[in-house]
């Protein structure tokens, strides 16, 4: 039969309202809609980050270097490519007579910003602040309790508040900050005594090209002209790699959760298509009598299902497109850029492809079974169920699955993790499916309750055609995901609230002068006797070369850094120590004695050593404030990064570095219960050039981010629960004829409506109890794995909240189940018996 | 599409069944429905299959129309060897060769009268299916009901549509299974008149299943079945 003729017959048989295929429509609508929204949003953010790269970076190229400004010869060379704007970034302490706050100082020259402009809350568009003036982020002004025109102290200088920042053009490229932004003129840090040799600051020089140069080409030219200067470069094309990476990862994870929801929807698709085709047995048999072959049947009904799938998916795409701004507003501050309605054809095409592939996987088996419906069904009342010839649908199902896997992995920033997630989801689904079968089997074998209502409820779980397996899988997956998220989120929050503060210090202090270290310890001890102060020397330097003494590898000669060799990129923190740092252990070689005097030595992180093939006895050359220093590797160390103290990849023997100008960084652990109130003021007065980072506010911010990420994931997981509910409604609708028959017979036998309601409660109550057990066991089991094995955190779930989340899910399930079954109670026996 | 083999000379039977057997179920549950049927039907003949419930009439029709494969014996229908064809090949063989009218009409509820009649011809890839369907419906007196759905038609009208659907492809062989079973007496008589008139006009061979002696006597030949075997085969006038 020609496709056109088949479509003609298919179209006639297909009600315009898709009656019978609504479950398929709803499931695809939900799944494709979720994926479209997630894909559109993340795609939009990524493209916006790229399109606005120049604005975000504040130029075409940024050259970063630690502890110095660019030299005149560097500036002259780079200046040939365009206009330069210099700036400094450093931690600082701002104070007034009544308040003190750690701030992130951003010192800029008069040319800043090269691209865009800074907008103040007054609406004024400005550039760099005039001498003696600062632009303050609203948080900084609030903390210092100052407004425009007031003054505050930075180091040794009084500064006037010139305005409060409303929009900072290059904020995104600054990355995660440890304090509120204060923008000051370029010369202020030095004038205020905050910048001295050895101080921890970073200079950022931006270039706005005067010709359309290739950013990476210019980067290469600068690195070649001035080798070993420890530059970090950033181009407009990759202005905010951190934000891009975060959005990519979050987007991918949400896509995977959405895909899991779509798979649940797939179960609904399978059920919907199955009951649709079952209802069309007579029509199929009639067509066969009229000469339709089994191939014609597959073509006709395949076209119908395909058309419904396209309509459902298209509606999903439209809804996904429309809800993107809602999703964006739910994620709020988590997103680096603002997005409105976004049309991203690639994301929509991907969502559509996922939807159609899932529809293929789940609709193919019932469709291929339908071709074998015998024409004889018209002549005998019922023909026995057909044996499922799985071989016939192995090919389309296999192709569909392969397509889903390929589509997931292609374009995934982390294909291995995606593959693991897919495998995990497949195992989980298989487990749930088996569990569903086991429950059905157990219900059949269980002793029959003497109460007829309970007996009937139990029987409904295992009667022929019961959808118990599908329901346990579909609803179990969604509810398990809810429990998993609640357990992970509350455990992480519990760790942030309890365990992390236990391990992390209360304060980090940077730039404690070497000569003032003893006084610093004394100040803290006087303020809070019993405080624990750990101080380490801090220097910044870049690795220039490594390897055997007579055959060193120059870092600049490496075309690409080996995997795991991030410590070779740009300047890194260096330190020296007479003894093995706390929470480190030597894995090879020997750590120098405390009084070591001979050749300068260095101890290296074993992971880096492995990544670049270092051997004990090799050498490392670093550039420190323009001076090259070489030390011999005498040990490798394992670092416990979770100790949340100071950890360095390179630890040198004191005689290797101690003559270089440097300061100390310190951690302060106050005695338990001792408030830090007043400490900031004390430190600002005693050590004006030092800066303090408070751990408490950072943890609060981390919790806020965690809550928002959890909300986003919860929204995606909610689609899984909605899809599960659609499956539930579909299963109830599919079994309506059999249930109506039961209900009517029971009514004829004298059952009251109350008793029939009891039957429904018994059946769905049993199902809900089983689901609660499954979700609690699977969800918390997986959450425990994630928290203790993946994050290596303590298992601190908030049980009341988990039970509340699960309870809400179950109430939803029961409500939907009973609500959808209520029409059965209204069935009139006489009328129904005539219709049956 | 497979075009129907033209009926051969008058001497060749349009249905030729020898020792036809049908067993349903396996092993101990096996039931012998047809137990060696020998039947030849000549072109243009009208034949009534008569017998009590459970005698195997409908099963014999299912086998003769290729809806069910015989468990044994040989069967040639309108030039095709049905005993060697699988289910799909039987469906193709039915196209244009066999028209079927069933007791419960079995119209496709989602299609209009004209769409129902056009469907078998469309399945066979006929280009003028639509026009022929309209013409056939006019011929059965339903020219004014072309766009009506089955639920908008009376029982008699539905059976007229079913007759039009069976005859529109001009099959050489027409089967009718209790065509008046779901109709009241006067409607039933009108339908039978129409069936015989249209059969005569189209020249099709008619095999009709019935338990109505009077109706059976309108056929040229009456074959009686009991317990899966033919117990008598006689000209209608001889009864």
From TrEMBL, chain A:
<feature type="transmembrane region" description="Helical">
    <location>
        <begin position="253"/>
        <end position="277"/>
    </location>
</feature>
<feature type="transmembrane region" description="Helical">
    <location>
        <begin position="799"/>
        <end position="825"/>
    </location>
</feature>
<protein>
    <submittedName>
        <fullName>FtsX-like permease family protein</fullName>
    </submittedName>
</protein>
<dbReference type="Pfam" id="PF02687">
    <property type="entry name" value="FtsX"/>
</dbReference>
<feature type="transmembrane region" description="Helical">
    <location>
        <begin position="389"/>
        <end position="410"/>
    </location>
</feature>
<feature type="transmembrane region" description="Helical">
    <location>
        <begin position="21"/>
        <end position="45"/>
    </location>
</feature>
<feature type="transmembrane region" description="Helical">
    <location>
        <begin position="465"/>
        <end position="488"/>
    </location>
</feature>
<keyword id="KW-0812">Transmembrane</keyword>
<keyword id="KW-1003">Cell membrane</keyword>
<keyword id="KW-0472">Membrane</keyword>
<keyword id="KW-1133">Transmembrane helix</keyword>
<feature type="transmembrane region" description="Helical">
    <location>
        <begin position="347"/>
        <end position="368"/>
    </location>
</feature>
<feature type="transmembrane region" description="Helical">
    <location>
        <begin position="709"/>
        <end position="735"/>
    </location>
</feature>
<dbReference type="InterPro" id="IPR003838">
    <property type="entry name" value="ABC3_permease_C"/>
</dbReference>
<dbReference type="InterPro" id="IPR038766">
    <property type="entry name" value="Membrane_comp_ABC_pdt"/>
</dbReference>
<feature type="domain" description="ABC3 transporter permease C-terminal">
    <location>
        <begin position="716"/>
        <end position="827"/>
    </location>
</feature>
<feature type="transmembrane region" description="Helical">
    <location>
        <begin position="298"/>
        <end position="327"/>
    </location>
</feature>
<feature type="transmembrane region" description="Helical">
    <location>
        <begin position="756"/>
        <end position="787"/>
    </location>
</feature>
<feature type="transmembrane region" description="Helical">
    <location>
        <begin position="416"/>
        <end position="439"/>
    </location>
</feature>
<feature type="domain" description="ABC3 transporter permease C-terminal">
    <location>
        <begin position="257"/>
        <end position="371"/>
    </location>
</feature>
From TrEMBL, chain B:
<dbReference type="InterPro" id="IPR027417">
    <property type="entry name" value="P-loop_NTPase"/>
</dbReference>
<keyword id="KW-0813">Transport</keyword>
<dbReference type="InterPro" id="IPR015854">
    <property type="entry name" value="ABC_transpr_LolD-like"/>
</dbReference>
<feature type="domain" description="ABC transporter">
    <location>
        <begin position="15"/>
        <end position="239"/>
    </location>
</feature>
<dbReference type="InterPro" id="IPR017911">
    <property type="entry name" value="MacB-like_ATP-bd"/>
</dbReference>
<dbReference type="InterPro" id="IPR017871">
    <property type="entry name" value="ABC_transporter-like_CS"/>
</dbReference>
<keyword id="KW-0067">ATP-binding</keyword>
<dbReference type="Pfam" id="PF00005">
    <property type="entry name" value="ABC_tran"/>
</dbReference>
<dbReference type="GO" id="GO:0005524">
    <property type="term" value="F:ATP binding"/>
</dbReference>
<keyword id="KW-0547">Nucleotide-binding</keyword>
<dbReference type="InterPro" id="IPR003593">
    <property type="entry name" value="AAA+_ATPase"/>
</dbReference>
<dbReference type="InterPro" id="IPR003439">
    <property type="entry name" value="ABC_transporter-like_ATP-bd"/>
</dbReference>
<protein>
    <submittedName>
        <fullName>ATP-binding cassette domain-containing protein</fullName>
    </submittedName>
</protein>
């Amino acid at each position: 039969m020609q496709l056109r003729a088949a479509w003609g017959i298919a179209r006639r048989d297909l009600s315009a309202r898709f009656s019978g295929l609504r479950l398929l429509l709803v499931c695809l609508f939900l799944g494709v809609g979720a994926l479209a929204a997630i894909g559109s949003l993340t795609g939009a953010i990524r493209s916006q980050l790229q399109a606005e790269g120049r604005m975000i970076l504040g130029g075409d190229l940024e050259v970063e270097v630690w502890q110095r400004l660019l030299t005149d010869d560097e500036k002259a060379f780079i200046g040939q490519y365009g206009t330069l704007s210099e700036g400094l970034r450093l931690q600082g302490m701002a104070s007034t007579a009544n308040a003190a706050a750690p701030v992130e100082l951003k010192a800029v020259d008069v040319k800043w910003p090269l691209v865009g402009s800074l907008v103040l809350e007054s609406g004024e568009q400005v550039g760099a602040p005039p001498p003696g003036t600062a632009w303050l982020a609203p948080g900084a002004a609030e903390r210092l309790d100052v407004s425009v025109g007031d003054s505050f102290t930075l180091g040794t200088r009084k500064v006037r508040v010139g305005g409060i920042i409303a929009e900072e053009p290059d904020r995104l490229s600054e990355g995660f900050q440890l304090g509120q932004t204060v923008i000051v003129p370029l010369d202020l840090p030095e004038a205020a005594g905050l910048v001295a040799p050895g101080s921890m600051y970073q200079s950022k020089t931006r270039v706005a090209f005067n010709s359309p140069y290739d950013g990476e080409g210019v980067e290469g030219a600068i690195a070649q002209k001035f080798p070993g200067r420890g530059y970090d470069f950033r181009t407009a094309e990759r202005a905010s790699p951190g934000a891009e990476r975060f959005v990519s990862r979050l987007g991918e994870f949400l896509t995977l959760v959405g895909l899991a929801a779509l798979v649940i929807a797939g179960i609904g698709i399978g059920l919907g298509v199955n009951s649709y085709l079952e209802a069309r047995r007579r029509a199929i048999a009639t067509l066969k009598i009229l000469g339709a072959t089994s191939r014609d049947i597959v073509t006709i009904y395949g076209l119908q299902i395909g058309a419904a799938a396209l309509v459902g998916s298209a509606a999903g795409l439209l809804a996904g497109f429309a809800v993107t701004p809602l999703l964006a507003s739910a994620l709020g501050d988590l997103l680096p850029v603002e997005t409105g309605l976004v049309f991203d054809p690639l994301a929509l095409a991907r969502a559509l492809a996922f939807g159609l592939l899932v529809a293929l996987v789940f609709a193919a088996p019932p469709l291929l079974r339908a071709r074998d419906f015998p024409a004889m069904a018209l002549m005998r009342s019922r023909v026995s169920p057909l044996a499922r010839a799985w071989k016939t649908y192995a090919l389309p199902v296999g192709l569909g699955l392969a397509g889903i896997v390929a589509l997931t992995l292609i374009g995934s920033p982390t294909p291995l993790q995606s593959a693991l997630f897919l495998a995990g989801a497949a195992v989980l689904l298989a487990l749930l499916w088996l569990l569903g079968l086991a429950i059905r089997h157990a219900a059949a074998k269980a002793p029959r309750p003497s109460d007829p209502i309970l007996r009937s409820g139990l029987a409904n779980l295992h009667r022929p055609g019961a959808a118990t397996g599908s329901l346990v899988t579909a609803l179990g997956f969604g509810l398990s995901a809810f429990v998993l998220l609640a357990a992970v989120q509350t455990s992480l929050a519990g760790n942030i609230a309890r365990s992390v503060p236990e391990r992390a210090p209360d304060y980090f202090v940077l730039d404690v002068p070497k000569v003032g270290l003893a006084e610093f310890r004394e100040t803290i001890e006087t303020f809070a006797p019993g405080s624990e102060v750990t101080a380490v020397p801090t220097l910044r330097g870049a690795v220039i070369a490594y390897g055997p003494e007579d055959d060193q590898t120059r870092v600049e000669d490496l075309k690409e850094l080996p995997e795991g060799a991030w410590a070779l990129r740009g300047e890194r923190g260096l330190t020296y120590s007479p003894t093995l740092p706390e929470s480190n252990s030597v894995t090879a070689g020997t750590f120098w004695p405390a009084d070591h005097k001979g050749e300068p030595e260095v101890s290296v992180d074993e992971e880096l050593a492995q990544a670049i093939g270092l051997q004990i006895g090799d050498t490392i050359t670093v550039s420190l404030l323009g001076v090259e220093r070489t030390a011999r590797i005498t040990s490798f160390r394992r670092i416990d990064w979770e100790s949340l103290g100071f950890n360095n990849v390179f630890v040198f023997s004191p005689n290797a570095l101690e003559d270089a100008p440097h300061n100390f960084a310190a951690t302060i652990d106050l005695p338990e219960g001792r408030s830090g109130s007043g400490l900031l003021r004390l430190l600002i007065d005693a050590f004006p050039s030092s800066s303090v980072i408070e751990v408490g506010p950072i943890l609060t911010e981390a919790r806020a981010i965690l809550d928002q990420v959890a909300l986003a994931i919860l929204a995606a997981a909610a689609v899984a629960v909605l899809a599960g509910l659609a499956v539930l409604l579909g299963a109830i609708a599919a079994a309506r004829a059999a249930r109506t028959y039961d209900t009517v017979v029971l009514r004829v036998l004298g059952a009251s409506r109350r008793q029939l309601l009891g039957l429904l409660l018994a059946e769905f109550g049993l199902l809900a109890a089983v689901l609660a057990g499954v979700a609690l066991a699977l969800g918390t089991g997986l959450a425990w794995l994630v928290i203790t094995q993946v994050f290596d955190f303590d298992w601190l779930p908030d049980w009341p909240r988990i039970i509340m989340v699960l309870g809400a899910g179950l109430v939803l399930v029961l409500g939907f189940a009973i609500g959808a079954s209520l029409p059965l109670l209204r069935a009139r026996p006489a009328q129904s018996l005539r219709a049956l | 599409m497979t075009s129907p083999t033209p009926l051969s000379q008058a001497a060749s039977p349009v249905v030729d069944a020898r020792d036809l057997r049908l067993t349903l179920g396996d092993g101990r549950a096996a039931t012998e429905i047809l137990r060696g049927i020998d039947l030849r039907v000549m072109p243009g003949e009208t034949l009534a299959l008569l017998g009590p419930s459970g005698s195997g009439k409908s099963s014999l029709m299912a086998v003769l129309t290729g809806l069910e494969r015989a468990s044994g014996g040989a069967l040639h229908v309108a030039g095709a060897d049905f005993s060697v064809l699988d289910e799909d090949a039987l469906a193709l063989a039915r196209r244009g060769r066999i028209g079927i009218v069933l007791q419960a009409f079995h119209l496709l509820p989602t299609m209009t009268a004209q769409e129902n009649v056009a469907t078998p011809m469309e399945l066979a890839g006929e280009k003028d299916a639509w026009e022929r369907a309209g013409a056939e419906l006019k011929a059965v007196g339903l020219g004014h009901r072309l766009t009506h759905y089955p639920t908008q038609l009376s029982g008699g009208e539905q059976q007229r549509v079913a007759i039009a659907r069976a005859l529109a492809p001009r099959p050489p062989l027409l089967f009718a299974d209790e065509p008046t079973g779901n109709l009241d007496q006067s409607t039933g008589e009108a339908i039978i008149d129409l069936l015989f008139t249209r059969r005569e006009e189209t020249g099709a061979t008619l095999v009709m299943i019935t338990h109505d002696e009077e109706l059976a006597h309108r056929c040229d030949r009456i074959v009686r079945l009991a317990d899966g075997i033919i117990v008598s085969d006689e000209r209608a006038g001889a009864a």
